[in-house]
Every structure is written in C-alpha cells, then in structure tokens.
C-alpha cells in the first residue's frame, strides 16, 4: 500500500511506530516501509534502515541508497531485510547509519535524483513557451547579432552562469521553495540545509538541461533562417557559420532569462510539482499548511 508519511516521520522512531500501527491494523506478519524522505535518529544521524526483527518491522530510506540503480539496489535491500527478519531466532532492534561524510553526499545524490530534475522543464509550460519565444525573436534581431559578435568567450560564459543563477533564484523565491527549520536545534538546521541544498542542485540541473535544450533548438532555428553572408553585409564584417554557434550561445542565455519571467505565470503548486518528487511535494505542502 502507498500513503504519505506525516512530517514527523522523518524521525525514525515515529516512522517505525507508524509502521507497527499499520501491521496491527492489517494483521501483517512482516512489514517494510520504503520512503523517499531521509530518516534520522535522535542524534541527528541519517540512516539507511531501521530494523526491528522481533516485531518484524523495518523502514528503508531510498535516498540513502544513493539514487543510482535504484530499482536493483532497493530490491536487493528489501530481500536482505526480509531474510534477516524471517530468521527463527530474531535479533534485537538495530539501525544502519550512514557514514558521517560520504553518507551525506550519497543521501544528497539520492534526494536530487528522487526529485527527477530532468522533469523540471516539461512541468513549467509557461516558462518553456516564454523561453522559446524569446529565443526565436532574439535570433533574428540585428542588435543581438551585434552584441553577440562583440562579446568575448568569458563574457558569454558569465552570461550563461548569471542566467542560470537568475532562473534558480527566481524559482526558489517565486515558488517559496526555501525550507525553514521547524525548530532551533542543530538537527533541525542541518535538515533544512540538506533540503535546501538538494533543492538548489535539483533546480540547477533542471535549468542547465533547459539551457542546453534551448541552445540546440535555437541553433537549428538560426541555421534554418539566417545566412552568414547577409548578416555580415548588414554588420559590415565577414561572418561564417561558426559565428552562428556564438550567436546561439548568447541567445540561449537571453532565452533562459525569458523563461524565468514566464515561470512567474505558474502557480506555486505547479512549481513544486515540477521541482520535487511526489512525496517531497506532499511534505512541503503539509509544512506550508501547518505554518499558516
């Protein structure tokens, strides 16, 4: 069965109590809970799994698996949990913590991949339309030709970085994606840092994918409608097809900024749905509801 965990189920004791209640209610002999949320103990340590062999209950954090080969690794982990709890002489309850340093990186990777950053662009249709329209118009603008030809490679690189950073910042602010600690404890602040880092990485990857896609689309458009000889005659200089690649680079940055303006037409719910996994989206919606 599938249902959302409550916000407090990030605490492993709460999650295990929830699973035991389900086991009693449905008269299950063995129950394993899988969650896309990171789980932690009272000391703030992030866990891969918590196992109670005597009550045949376990919870497994999918992001703690690292995000790569998730289906195979999760099946292997579930088989190991079932085998361990099915032993005739059950052991005491125990936890599988993640390493302090490498475990956090693995958990962050799992959270980012669980958010599926490659689905950001299709989820923000207004931003996509605005970016494509901006790119189409800018490509045939003679002022843009002049600007693109006058910029050095490092200025174009700065424009790329600035446009991506601007879109990420706008999505965080407009969609209210910044996670605030639910308390003053060090553990609460650490959890917020983890969630905010995963949000920034997810959005950066998603916007970078959008940037590359815009570059390809605008390059195809430029090769179709523009003639370097005509452009060179207008600008009174010699141009070749290689200059179209530079022009497209500059246009992709401008189109990305146009996409940021288009994302303002999206609702906060649409931005969260595009930026997060279903479970993380539900978690943030519940937090927002509780704080209001």
Largest sheet, in brief, is:
5 strands, mixed
- Look at the helices and sheets and give the structural class: alpha+beta
The portion of residues assigned to helices is 55-70%
Mean pLDDT, all residues: 81
Question: Tell me, what's the shape?
Answer: elongated
Number of strands: 5
**Which value, in Å, is the CA radius of gyration?**
24 Å
Strand content: 5-15%
Taken in chain order, the helices and strands follow as HEEEEHEHHHHHHHHHH
Intertermini distance: 30 Å
- How would you name the oligomeric state of the polypeptide chains in this document? single chain
- Poorly predicted runs are none
Number of helices: 12
Which key features would you list for this structure?
single chain, 292 residues, alpha+beta, five-stranded mixed beta sheet, 12 helices, 5 strands, elongated
How would you summarize the topology of this molecule?
Blueprint (H helix, E strand, L loop, with lengths): L11 H15 L4 E5 L3 E2 L5 E7 L4 E5 L8 H16 L8 E4 L4 H13 L5 H4 L1 H15 L2 H9 L2 H22 L11 H40 L2 H8 L5 H23 L4 H8 L2 H14 L1
Parallel strand pairs: 1-4
Antiparallel strand pairs: 2-3, 3-4, 3-5
Helix pairs in contact: 3-8, 5-8, 5-10, 6-10, 7-8, 7-10, 8-10, 11-12
């Amino acid at each position: 069965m599938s249902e959302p965990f409550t916000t407090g189920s990030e605490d492993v004791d709460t999650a295990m109590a929830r699973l035991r209640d389900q086991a009693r209610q449905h008269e299950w002999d063995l129950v394993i809970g899988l969650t896309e949320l990171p789980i932690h103990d009272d000391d703030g340590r992030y866990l891969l799994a918590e196992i109670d062999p005597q009550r045949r209950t376990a919870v497994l954090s999918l992001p703690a698996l690292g995000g790569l080969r998730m289906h195979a690794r999760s099946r292997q982990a579930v088989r190991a949990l079932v085998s361990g709890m099915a032993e005739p002489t059950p052991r005491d309850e125990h936890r599988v913590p993640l390493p302090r340093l490498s475990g956090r990186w693995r958990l962050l990777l799992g959270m980012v991949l669980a958010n599926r950053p490659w689905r950001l662009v299709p989820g923000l249709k207004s931003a996509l339309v605005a970016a494509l329209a901006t790119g189409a118009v800018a490509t045939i603008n003679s002022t843009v030709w002049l600007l693109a030809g006058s910029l050095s490679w490092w200025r174009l690189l700065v424009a790329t970085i600035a446009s991506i950073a601007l879109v990420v910042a706008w999505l965080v602010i407009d969609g209210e994606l910044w996670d605030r600690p639910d308390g003053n404890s060090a553990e609460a602040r650490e959890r917020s840092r983890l969630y905010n880092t995963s949000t920034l990485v997810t959005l950066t990857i998603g916007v970078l994918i959008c940037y590359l896609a815009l570059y390809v689309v605008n390059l195809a458009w430029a090769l179709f409608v523009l003639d370097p000889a005509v452009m060179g005659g207008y600008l009174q200089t010699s141009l070749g097809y290689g200059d179209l690649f530079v022009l497209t680079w500059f246009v992709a940055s401008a189109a990305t900024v146009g996409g940021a303006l288009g994302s303002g037409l999206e609702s906060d719910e649409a931005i969260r749905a595009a930026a997060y996994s279903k479970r993380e989206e539900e978690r943030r919606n519940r937090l927002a509801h509780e704080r209001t």
